[in-house]
Design brief:
The chain is α/β, with parallel strands linked by helices. A hairpin with an 8-residue loop joins strand 6 and strand 7.
Amino acid sequence: MFSHLCIGINDFDRAFDFYSAITPPLGLELKFCDSERSWASWQTPEAPRPLLVIGKPFDGKAATAGNGQMVAWLANSRAQVEHVYRVALEQGATCEGPPGLRPYYHEHYFGAYFRDPDGNKLCVCCHQPE
């Protein structure tokens, strides 16, 4: 469905460390890292797309978090949701909603919400029963 998702960042080293910590538990591998251009990308090992890309905005202005925008990763289990959430907080994320059931989405929706160090809202969720 998607070719790539871009997340705007301001401090490349901080963002790279953050995403390098939370992507492996989701099964993503580093595709490229170019610190001179301040961008990097991760993907699943079995497919060339979609890509998760972090980088400074091309217009040279500061990256800002969009109100109502969020990137959500699909987890294989509730334990994986909890693990990624814990790693994210250890890497400087701020909580936007701890791991738990969100039955107002559907009966088995289990998600966790957090913001990266640049304020981008992120989610990890599982749609499977426990």
